[in-house]
Amino acid sequence: MEIMTDHGFRKTIKILRALLFISLIGMIGALLFFVGILTYAKILGPPTLAVPQSTLIFADDGTLIGESHNGQKRYWVKLDNISKDLVNATISIEDKNFYEHHGFDYKRIGGAVLADIQAFAKVQGASTITQQYARNLFLKHEKTWTRKLSEAFYTIRLEMNYSKKEILEGYLNTIYYGNGAYGIEAASQYYFGKKASELNLAEASLLAGIPKGPNIYAPTSSMENAKTRQKIILQSMVNDGFISKNQAETAAAQPLTIVGKHTTPKVKIAPYFQDAVKNALKNQLNLDDRTIALGGLKVYTTLDLKQQKKAEEQIAQVVNESSEIQVGLIAMNPKNGHVKAMVGGRDYEKSPFNRAVQAIRQPGSTIKPILYYAALEHGFTPSSTMRSEYTTFHFDNGQADYTPHNFNNKYANDEITLAQALAVSDNIFAVKTHLFLGEGTLIETAKKFGLSTKMKDVPSLALGTSGVRVIEMANAYSMFANGGNKVHPTLITRVEDSNGNIIFEKEETKEKVLDEAKAFVMTHMMTGVFDPKLNGYTKVTGSTILKDLTRPYAGKSGSTETDSWMIGFAPQLVTAVWVGYDASKPIEIPEEKSYAKKIWAKFMEAALDGKSVRAFKPPKEGVVGLYVNPANGKLATKDCPIRRLTYYIEGTEPTEYCTEHIGHKDKKNEGKEKKIPWYKRIMPWS
């Protein structure tokens, strides 16, 4: 019996040793596994905290004009800019030991397990703020072991690599508060119409209760449920020493006004402009769609809100509400190409197609200043003359005959100057100039002015029969206005990422593309569009809007059967206006044919109201200004009835004086004295 007992004892000892050994191996294995997990987490380094955030778009004065959100509102604010009451309320109700644990609250986990066992169901959560943050950042909200293990691993990585302040800030900026509001800033704006930094205790305690169940505890879903949970949170804050019992009671009784709407309105400011900005982010800055939509970018643009409003107002006032005609408008600062206003159509909700940027339409006579700039380069001057008359052009190369027509088939049937041909928009003069220069000259010159659309090498190109974009025409005229410097249409001045780092900033460069003297001579010739001194066989094309203009302008109108244009500028601002039908239907109603000029005139006056009146200043050298007879381009004498100051490239100015009016006054008076009125001849007694 003693032997058996001794044998059994030894056997028990062996078993215990084996169990101890196995346990030791298990503990060592678990320790090694845990160390391995920590080492692997350390090797991987900090996980990227890139979370979806709304991209914000700002006008040139810093005003928020729009955002990309895909139905979700996401903003990021620093922890220091979040109400302390909200921070304390969140910690108290979500994770009161947040500052003590390292990602996992084991005591709370144990309590949750016991509660679940007792209820035979999952009734209590034990996720810390770090675990919830990990889930929001990297994982789907599915209830699987794989997801839980991944959550644990990301939790370890977050705690190893980020401070408690960074984790708490990230959590408060990513948690969902219902109604499309992600993060406390979006929630505060939606529910109370204020910044997260401005929340009081009553508001903060109400918002802190929403993440547990946004569909249940959001005040927009049930104010009763929201207030019930608010009281629970306030009591928890009392228990944790964040507030006094009296503060809790006061906050619970405080009436709250729920706004219930996001700050950015549905109808966006300058929607066509914003679409163009997003397109520029993608195609010019090479950002992908997700970064543009949810990268938390801050995009600073060139838009002038006052000018944008004026553009929309003038279009609405001028265009008959019942008309189906469309409008495209671009206003631009000629010095740097900054687009100050953009209208791509009359109603964005009905048609988001941007006619100011995307449409390619025939420019008509607005192409002529570019043609005549080329003419200046080839020796023409404002006083160069050609005959304006009905003309059919014949070609030796087998090309079909071409017969252009002037407006209303009116012709001078005499010699006219280049300056007058531009002012009255004589088509015969333009085609003759085009053919004289060679049909390829205008194509190459147009490229110099930044026009990118393909142009046909045909005689009618001089009359604007090859399509262009409104924004490119505004840019081309900017080069006249700024003295010949190259500019590009610019919508964006700076872009910052979600952390405030500048990822793009527009650099201002100066590159001379046009000859400054020739650009000024051309600009001054374009002022003739508004000068009755250049009236000839017909009135100057700007005569119909002269009464609306109060300062010096240069410009050119243009029209085809289907398109109506007006492009012009003051030294501070260039504006291009196109009017027409999307389906290229002919513009037949007289009122609609005048829309482009009227919109341009009213907008320019409104946009420049209150700004200094500036004249077009000639360059310090290279040009000469002389008074000439505008009818023949010769130097004016004191006898000429009309004298107009005209600028020339130095060395090309006229030297011949006008002799048509010398002694003309005396001869005219003499004729009057001898002439007998018709009624005297018939009735000498009268």
From TrEMBL:
Please list every transmembrane segment annotated in the UniProt record, as residue ranges. Answer: 20-41
Q: Which GO terms describe its biological process?
A: cell wall organization; peptidoglycan biosynthetic process; proteolysis; regulation of cell shape
GO annotation, cellular component aspect: outer membrane-bounded periplasmic space; plasma membrane
UniProt keyword terms in alphabetical order: Carboxypeptidase, Cell membrane, Cell shape, Cell wall biogenesis/degradation, Glycosyltransferase, Hydrolase, Membrane, Multifunctional enzyme, Peptidoglycan synthesis, Protease, Transferase, Transmembrane, Transmembrane helix
* Example GO molecular function: peptidoglycan glycosyltransferase activity
Domain of life from the UniProt record: Bacteria
Under catalytic activity, the entry for this protein gives: [GlcNAc-(1->4)-Mur2Ac(oyl-L-Ala-gamma-D-Glu-L-Lys-D-Ala-D-Ala)](n)-di-trans,octa-cis-undecaprenyl diphosphate + beta-D-GlcNAc-(1->4)-Mur2Ac(oyl-L-Ala-gamma-D-Glu-L-Lys-D-Ala-D-Ala)-di-trans,octa-cis-undecaprenyl diphosphate = [GlcNAc-(1->4)-Mur2Ac(oyl-L-Ala-gamma-D-Glu-L-Lys-D-Ala-D-Ala)](n+1)-di-trans,octa-cis-undecaprenyl diphosphate + di-trans,octa-cis-undecaprenyl diphosphate + H(+); Preferential cleavage: (Ac)2-L-Lys-D-Ala-|-D-Ala. Also transpeptidation of peptidyl-alanyl moieties that are N-acyl substituents of D-alanine
Q: For the Penicillin-binding protein transpeptidase domain, which residue ranges apply?
A: 329-604
Q: Where in the cell is it found?
A: Cell membrane
Q: Where is the Glycosyl transferase family domain?
A: 62-237
Which Gene3D superfamilies does its entry note?
A: Biosynthetic peptidoglycan transglycosylase-like, DD-peptidase/beta-lactamase superfamily
Q: Which family does it belong to?
A: In the N-terminal section; belongs to the glycosyltransferase 51 family.
What name is this protein filed under?
A: Penicillin-binding protein
Name the species this protein comes from: Neobacillus thermocopriae
